[in-house]
Specification:
Elements: H1 2-15, H2 31-41, H3 54-83
């Protein structure tokens, strides 16, 4: 069964050839992008989601606080249903 399906799909797959970057003109990296790559790839014992600076730290802490508030609210809701 699988062979029949593969044999039917094989001609369709051959019609589409992948586009190579060299054919598409290549990828040009701007100096700003090169600096960002250097900043995020350096080994400074920070996780990648905190390498963006102060705003990343604020967003990370806000995300943690909102997750804790949501879990506590959910637990309180379930306990209010159980104890009622």
């Amino acid at each position: 069964m699988q062979r029949n399906l593969i044999n039917k799909l094989r001609p369709l797959l051959r019609q589409q050839s992948p586009i190579k970057m060299s054919e598409a003109g290549g990828a040009k990296i701007t100096p700003k992008m090169a600096n960002l790559q250097k900043k995020f790839q350096e080994d400074n014992d920070k996780p990648v989601f905190l390498k963006g600076g102060g705003m990343d730290n604020i967003l990370f802490i806000l995300t943690l606080v909102l997750c804790v508030v949501g879990v506590v609210g959910d637990v309180l809701l379930w306990f209010s249903y159980i104890l009622a």
